[in-house]
């Protein structure tokens, strides 16, 4: 499978939607509907060879991927083994998630994070475990509330201190200043 086909499969795996129209998938990956239909044939063949998942096509409803959670995790592992993940992207994602949690006063769901970064929930959970350990250094707590999502609890002063030391999340010695600089206006 090529990168576009893997991207389509990741969309089908991560976004919580019963059915996708080919037009919606085409807009998401920036190609034609005919290309999507051709890619779906390749994806369907891949699924037959590597998983028990089924690609269901229903006229006027769209395309749906029927897969259980265990099989979904296995498929994500296969996709990430086939396409190596750039460590820098993982680090940037970790910092961006921590930044989002520290800056937003409202709850953020695990699903919304998985959809934003086109990753499986298990990968988000691993990132959140790292973030949670790091937050403890600043006397902050990552709270997960069922049906609401995640929120960082602690004093405003501690949140600001954590933001100032955000680069230490990935490596205490090498700051990732690109992301931090992009969050503040030049003036």
Question: Can you walk through the features of this model?
Answer:
The chain is mainly α. It has two domains: 3-82, Orthogonal Bundle (Arc Repressor Mutant, subunit A), CATH 1.10.10; 87-182, Winged helix-like DNA-binding domain superfamily/Winged helix DNA-binding domain (Arc Repressor Mutant, subunit A, Orthogonal Bundle), CATH 1.10.10. 58% of the residues lie in helices and 11% in strands. The chain has nine helices and four strands; from the N terminus they run αααββααααββαα. It has helices spanning 3-14, 22-29, 33-50, 69-82, 87-103, 110-117, 121-136, 156-164, 177-182, and strands at residues 54-58, 62-66, 141-145, 149-153. The strands form two sheets. The protein has a two-stranded antiparallel ribbon with strand order 1-2. It has a two-stranded antiparallel sheet with strand order 3-4. A hairpin with a 3-residue loop joins strand 1 (54-58) and strand 2. Helix 1 (3-14) packs across helix 3 and helix 2 packs across helix 3 (33-50). Residues 81-88 have low confidence and may be disordered.
Q: Which labels suit this protein?
A:
187 residues, Arc Repressor Mutant, subunit A, 2 domains, two-stranded antiparallel ribbon, 4 strands, 58% helix, elongated
N-to-C SSE string, H for helix and E for strand = HHHEEHHHHEEHH
| Rg calc | 19 Å
Estimate nothing, just give the exact number of structural domains.
2
State the CATH topology of the largest domain: Arc Repressor Mutant, subunit A
Low-confidence stretches: 81-88
Spatial separation of the terminal alpha carbons: 46 Å
Q: Roughly what percent helix?
A: 55-70%
């Amino acid at each position: 499978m090529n990168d576009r086909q893997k991207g389509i499969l990741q969309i089908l795996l991560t976004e919580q939607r019963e059915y996708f129209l080919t037009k919606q998938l085409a807009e998401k990956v920036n190609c034609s509907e005919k290309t999507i239909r051709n890619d779906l044939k390749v994806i369907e063949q891949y699924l037959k060879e590597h998983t028990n998942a089924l690609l269901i096509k229903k006229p006027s409803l769209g395309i749906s991927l029927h897969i259980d959670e265990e099989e979904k995790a296995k498929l994500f592992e296969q996709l990430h083994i086939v396409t190596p993940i750039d460590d820098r992207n993982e680090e940037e994602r970790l910092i961006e998630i921590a930044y989002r949690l520290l800056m937003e006063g409202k709850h953020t769901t695990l699903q919304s994070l998985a959809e934003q970064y086109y990753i499986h929930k298990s990968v988000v959970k691993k990132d959140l475990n790292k973030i949670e350990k790091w937050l403890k250094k600043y006397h902050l707590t990552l709270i997960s509330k069922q049906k609401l999502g995640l929120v960082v609890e602690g004093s405003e002063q501690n949140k600001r201190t954590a933001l100032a030391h955000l680069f230490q999340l990935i490596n205490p010695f090498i700051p990732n200043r690109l992301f931090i600089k992009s969050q503040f206006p030049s003036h």
